[in-house]
Amino acid sequence: MLFISKTPFVFFSYSVIIELVDDHFEGSLRRPFNWKSLAALSRVSVNVSKELMLCYLIKPSTMTDKEMESPECMKRIKVQEVILSRWVSSRERSDQDEL
């Protein structure tokens, strides 16, 4: 579930980055990552009480650009999500104290 609805408003629980890749996880990334940029994105997400989700849309290598123009292509695209979380020692200690 991408959102939690405890109020009349809907608040999403994730900051989402979406990348289109082929079935070998190759493709031109819109936003190339390194450890520093991932740490920064994770920290920003935590500061706004969200988790960082990387969402990969995996298209078959055999799918043509022409096929991608139609919504029918969604039937062949797979989704792989990765949720990144940052270990925060003070938060972990307080969680352990509650146990």
TrEMBL record:
GO cellular component: cytoplasm; tRNA-intron endonuclease complex
Molecular-function GO terms, alphabetical: nucleic acid binding; tRNA-intron lyase activity
GO biological process, any: tRNA-type intron splice site recognition and cleavage
Signal found in the keyword field: no
SUPFAM superfamilies: tRNA-intron endonuclease catalytic domain-like
Record's keyword terms, sorted: Endonuclease, Hydrolase, Nuclease
Sections of the chain in a coiled coil: none
Record field: transmembrane: none
Identification of the protein by name: tRNA splicing endonuclease subunit 2
Lineage: Eukaryota, Metazoa, Chordata, Craniata, Vertebrata
